[in-house]
Design goal:
Length: 438
């Protein structure tokens, strides 16, 4: 009965998250409370489960709040703009170079962990160039989405924060083994971009004949900054801001202090350097607070959700009962199987549903058969994360489609198999390198 209640609870949460009828905060908070009441627990016990769950994700919440504010300020002061503008200038007029440059520009833009801002930077800047060169705009969307997904394995990106909340561990410890996968992934994506660039060149030649540089290419590649929202009066201390951003990231990799503390220090240094006036400092915090608070509320609600599922032992009961149903030879490899089908899962489950509903069950099952929690986490992260920007459940993707004037169905048809194949290759590399232990 406990398993049935647990499965119904999780199913309702997943359906609500997919439907978009309620916010993740509401679904993650209220539904498990109803499940716990149905299982016979009283309000006092549920309160204890809530406390335990939210305390376990508190450090992740702090990290997200200050990471979003810090990188928001770095975007405001234009830390990444010269790199992006230079890449645009270098790639003008060459189809293969444009494809490769798209990967690099998107990787730089995604450093703030926000897919929406990445698309706001890359699509308006590169779409005119793609159109002038007669390149397929769906190639632009696929390359930007895949590059952003790889970079989104950073600690301040959503997936790692969610997994860290489930495992109750420091997010930077979760991230470090993934750095090598990110680097390899970006290198492989550059290689893929070269191959796709050659293919695109041939397709262009078939459509409109041999295509070379146009005399008015300068009109395509503007010297204007990418279309990101800037604070009035752009701050002057560019290289000091670059050094600060690099230092904060280096401290995260080093792991000498908690990630949240590192970002708090970064924000406290960035604000007075760039905005001496206290009203301007508060204005920057207020500008980026909505995104920070939104993520914090979701993570706290997820902590409550997991605290109740764990406290009531619903997850344990589900895992125990599933073990009796699944074939014995499948169970130790369940995380790998789910990882292989991670991109298709993105068409069915939202990010919250995948990491807060599916992952805890898989992790509970495979760890009982000697698989480490980290191996289960890495298999499901690497297998799924590339699918983020090919899913109709991604709000940022709808923004990108709107900016580019493209259709969701055509994007899925163009990009899905390529992104899924790329995801499986990364998963195989992670297994071969020992990041995922079978």
């Amino acid at each position: 009965m406990l398993s049935i209640i647990g499965l119904i609870t999780i199913l309702i949460v997943v359906v609500l998250l997919i439907s978009g009828k309620v916010s993740p905060f509401v679904g993650l908070l209220l539904v498990p409370i109803g499940g716990a009441f149905a299982a016979g627990f009283n309000l006092e016990q549920i309160g204890e489960f809530f406390t335990s769950g939210t305390q376990s994700v508190f450090s992740v919440v702090v990290m997200f709040i200050f990471a979003i504010i810090f990188f928001g300020i770095m975007q405001d002061v234009g830390v990444f703009d010269p790199l992006i503008n230079k890449m645009i200038a270098l790639t003008r007029g060459n189809v293969i170079a444009v494809a490769v440059g798209t990967v690099i520009i998107a990787a730089i833009a995604q450093m703030d962990g926000s897919g929406a801002s990445t698309f706001l930077i890359t699509i308006p800047a590169l779409l005119p160039l793609y159109k002038r060169l007669k390149m397929n705009p769906y190639l632009l969307l696929m390359l930007v989405g895949t590059s952003a997904s790889i970079v989104n394995m950073v600690p301040w990106g959503g997936p790692l924060g969610r997994v860290a909340a489930v495992l109750e561990m420091d997010v930077t410890e979760l991230w470090r083994p993934l750095i090598q996968i990110q680097l390899i992934g970006l290198v492989l994506l550059v290689v893929l971009a070269v191959a796709l660039g050659y293919r695109e060149k041939r397709l262009i030649a078939k459509r409109v004949g041999e295509f070379g540089k146009t005399d008015d290419m300068e009109s395509v590649v503007s010297d204007k900054e990418p279309q990101t929202k800037k604070a009035e009066g752009k701050p002057k201390f560019y290289w000091l801001n670059v050094a600060l951003a690099i230092s904060v990231i280096a401290v995260l990799v080093w792991g000498i202090i908690p990630a949240g503390f590192a970002f708090m220090i970064g924000v406290s240094i960035a604000l007075p350097i760039n905005y001496p006036n206290i009203q301007d400092q508060m204005g920057r915090i207020q500008a980026h607070a909505p995104g920070a608070i939104l993520m914090a509320t979701i993570i706290l609600a997820a902590g409550s959700f997991l605290g109740i599922l764990n406290g009531t032992e619903m997850l344990t009961s589900i895992a125990t009962d599933l073990v009796t149903i699944l074939p014995a030879f499948v169970i130790p490899y369940l995380h790998i199987i789910i990882g292989v089908f991670g991109v298709p899962f993105d068409l069915l489950l939202s990010t919250d549903a995948y990491y807060f509903a599916l992952f805890p069950i898989v992790e509970q099952i495979v760890t009982d058969f000697g698989v480490s929690s980290l191996s289960a986490a890495y298999a499901m992260i690497i297998g799924n994360i590339i699918g983020t920007f090919v899913s109709p459940l991604s709000p940022a993707l709808w923004l990108a489609l709107g900016l580019a004037g493209l259709e969701m169905g055509k994007h899925i048809r163009y990009s899905f198999m390529m992104m899924w194949g790329f995801s499986i290759v990364l998963l195989a590399i992670a297994i071969a390198m020992g990041v995922i232990v079978l």
